[in-house]
Structures are given as structure tokens and as C-alpha cells.
Amino acid sequence: MFKKLPGDEARNLVSTTPDTAVVFRPAVMNTPVSITLAIWLYRLVAGLARLVWRHPVALAVAATPVAACWLYGWHVTVAAVCMTTSALTAWATLHRSSFARLVGWRLLAWWRWVWVYRRHWQPVMVVSGLGRHLRGRDYLPALLKVRCDDWADHVTVRMLHGQAVKDWTDRADHLAHGFGAAGCRVSVARAGRLRLTFPRRDPLAVPLPAIPIPETPSVGPVEIGICEDGTPYRLKVHGTHVLIAGATGSGKGSYLWSVIRGLLPAMRSGLVQIWALDPKRMELSYGRELFDRYAADPADCADLLEAAVAVMQQRADRYAGVRRVHEPTAADPFILVIVDEVAFLTAYQSDKHLRARTIAALATLTTQGRAVGVGVLAALQDPRKEVMSIRNLFPDKIALRLDESEQVDMVLGEGARDRGALADHISPIPERGAGVGYVRLESSPDPIRVRAAYVSDADIRAMVAYAAGGGEGR
Ligand SMILES: Nc1ncnc2c1ncn2[C@@H]1O[C@H](COP(=O)(O)OP(=O)(O)OP(=O)(O)O)[C@@H](O)[C@H]1O
């Protein structure tokens, strides 16, 4: 049995004929030395150009002392290095942010590129199955760029031809552990290129105190917390409907109260009215004086929702053919209907008639209220369809800590968990995890991690005093 096979395949051959050796003759092509040298030279020049382009700061730091030593001798170089180090230390101390932006993060990115990603790239790619070993050659996705900021490494990679984003999202765990990070989030940079985000620390691990009440009246977006990258998290409430889903103790209350807090100046100037539905009687009742209308009893809740529908329809009649968007005014304020634990009304309510009235009113509001200035902000513990059949009528959803991984996609939409919305991994310890959630912003399909500020009982009392016209609220 004679067979000519390339590379590694020979070792897998088994002869079925006794006493017959397997013969393997690799095809050898002699490459002229000049071509080999030209290829090496090309690779060297291209590699150097890439190095200069990607890591100018790190390269300057390494190359300048060598050049100075060569040109001026080591005495001058040591003196220059000492002076430069002192100047950089002074810069870093006096203006940390500009130093970090222009020098610090670039140096760190270079170091992480060399020490973490380049060093482990091949084994991690092969073991995780993202690289391929074919006919004796490794085909690896390309590591293109590493960028660092104060909380994460952002690694840009070029996928192998034929790979899909799902191949990577399925292996996020392998990548995180392979590169020694707590997690890995995968997002598309552009066709064929992905951005992998490896957090180095958790900027949301510490509770955030209540955001100061804004100075000017506004209907939003309301600043209610921070995003993982340290930027303010602003939630749009006017012109949309928001559903917040999270297990018990996940901090839904901090979202409701932070929104109310951010709208206080507008409430005081009559541009916003808040209608509160509090079937649990434990959350919103604490600041009852803040609300233009309040209901706790299921029958009263249904009446209140129907009253909101009536306002909505009356506005729609007036606006028809005249305008298409709502501008909040004292005569036509933005009405935000806040419902704490909406499942009490839509699923756990034993009176079928009341349940049907509530669901119908909520469905009408969420399908038609947006354009006429009636919004719904609802919180619920269990996002299953049986519990909240109209959850898809809410354009914006927030997933706080959830009990099961399947619930993440129920809230944020298909594939959200694969793209890194690990709401089922949020810590159940209130200091670490309450108020932490995942949202999808309009600007990107990728979920981002946010934390709402914690509005304490004292803050709510101060808000009541502020709304009554006294005090600064804080
Ligand atoms: N944003 C936050 N930051 C830090 N701690 C918070 C935050 N929000 C809530 N907590 C803490 O977590 C506890 C539970 O919060 P909260 O009652 O708002 O949760 P919940 O989701 O509304 O729970 P339930 O559905 O049972 O009412 C609070 O008593 C508070 O100590």
C-alpha cells in the first residue's frame, strides 16, 4: 500500500497489509536563496513598520535611551533618563488624566500586548478551537490591536475567513480564562473584525450615592447612574417605555427613584407628572407626596391606568393632523406612569376581570402613549411571557440580576447573553450587585453594564421637601 500524503497525515496511516511498510515521500521544492532572503526582508520591514505604527510610545521609550547612549555616551543618557523620569512623574502627579491618556494607557497596552495577549495567543486560540491546525500549519485569527483604559483591555482581532461572531461569543469563557480576565465581551468592530473587552477591574463594584438633583427642568434623558466605562448613564423616559426586570433585591427600586429624582425640577415646574402604581405598597409609598396620582389597591390601579388611557386618547384627538411629537408644557405635561412589580397586576391578580382591564390598559399605553407624552416605567421580578405577556411592547428594557441565564434573552432580546449580558452572574450581595444591570443603548446593539445610584430613605425625604418647594433636595 503506497500513498503520498502531506505533513502530519503520515503518522495516522495504518497499513492493512502485513509486512508492508507505509512509504511517505514528502514533495520537496527548492526555493532559490534570493527569494527566501527577499521574503525575510519583506517580513522584517513590514513587522518593523507595524511595530512603529502600533506602539509608537513604547518604542520611543525603548529606543531613545539606546540611541542616546550610542550618540552621547552613558553618562549623558543616565542623566537624561533621570530627568525625563522626574518630569513624567511630575506630569503624572499634577495632571493624571492627560498623562494616562497620552502615555500611561499606551504603555500599559503595549505591555499587555506583549506579555498577555501575544504570549498566550497561539495556545488560547488553538485550545479554545478558534484557531485551526490543518495540514501541519496553524491558522490563527490575527491579533490586531490592544487598547487599554482605566477598567479594561480592548483587543481588536481579525477573524479567520469563514468564522462567525457566534463562534467567538460561544468561547467567551475560554478567552476570559485563557487571558486571565474575569470576563470577556465580544462585539463587532466591523466586517470580519471583533473587539474583545477584557475587564481588569470592576468600576461598578462600589455603590453610587444618589445623583444630585438637576438644576434645570428636563424630561430627560435622566442621569441615573454610571456606565462601566465611567461615563454617566442617562435613561430616556420621554418618548419611550421602559421595563426593568430583576430578581428580588436586585435594586429595581434604585432605578425608579433615580428617575423620579432626575425629573424633580421638571415636576416642580409642571412639565412632568408622575402617576404611581404600588401594588406591593413597599416601594413607592415612601415618597407618596411626590406623585400626582397614586394607587395601591388593584382596582384603583386599573382605574388609574384607564385614566391615563383616557388622557392619552384625548391628546391623540387633539394632536391628530396637527403635530406628531409631544412637547411637554404645563398644559400638556409628560405623564410618566410608574408601576412597581407589574406582575402583581398582570399575572398574580386573582380577579380575572381586573387583570384583563389592567393588561388592556397597559397594552394601549405602551402601544400608543409614546407620541402623545404618556410613558410607562415598569419593574418586575419574573420576565417570563406567562407573567408579562406584553413585555415586548416596551421598547427599552433593563436586565438586573436574574436567576436563570435564559431570562437574559427574554429581557434584552435574542443573543444578548452571548454578547456578554451576564445578568445571571451579577452578585447577589447588595453592596456589589444591587442596581447593576445590562442595557442596550440606541447607539449600539451590544449590551453595556451600568449601575444605578442608590437613593436612600433620607434622599427620598429630601426629595419630598424639594418638591414641596423648600430646600435644595441635597
Ligand atoms: N443602586 C444600588 N446600589 C447599592 N445598593 C442598592 C442599590 N439599590 C438597592 N440597593 C440595596 O439593595 C437592597 C434591595 O434593593 P431594592 O429593594 O431596590 O430591590 P428590588 O429589586 O426592588 O427588590 P424587590 O423586588 O424585592 O422589591 C436595598 O435595601 C439596598 O440596600
Radius of gyration: 30 Å
**How many structural domains can be distinguished in the coordinates?**
2
Ends distance: 88 Å
Q: What is the typical, i.e. mean, pLDDT? A: 88
CATH superfamily of the largest domain: P-loop containing nucleotide triphosphate hydrolases
Classify the fold: give the CATH topology of the largest domain: Rossmann fold
Question: Count of DSSP helices?
Answer: 13
- List the ligand species: adenosine-5'-triphosphate
Q: How many β-strand runs?
A: 16
Sequence of secondary-structure elements: HHHHEEEEHHEEEEEHEEHEHHEEHHEEH
Structural class: alpha/beta
Strand order across the largest sheet:
8-7-16-15-14-9-13-12-10-11
The residue fraction in helices comes out at 25-40%
CATH class annotation of the largest domain: Alpha Beta
| Coarse morphology | elongated
Tell me which CATH architecture of the largest domain applies here: 3-Layer(aba) Sandwich
> Spans of 5+ residues with little confidence (pLDDT < 50)?
1-5
Transmembrane segments: 27-45, 57-75
Domain FtsK: 230-409
Binding site for ATP: 246-253
GO molecular function: ATP binding; DNA binding
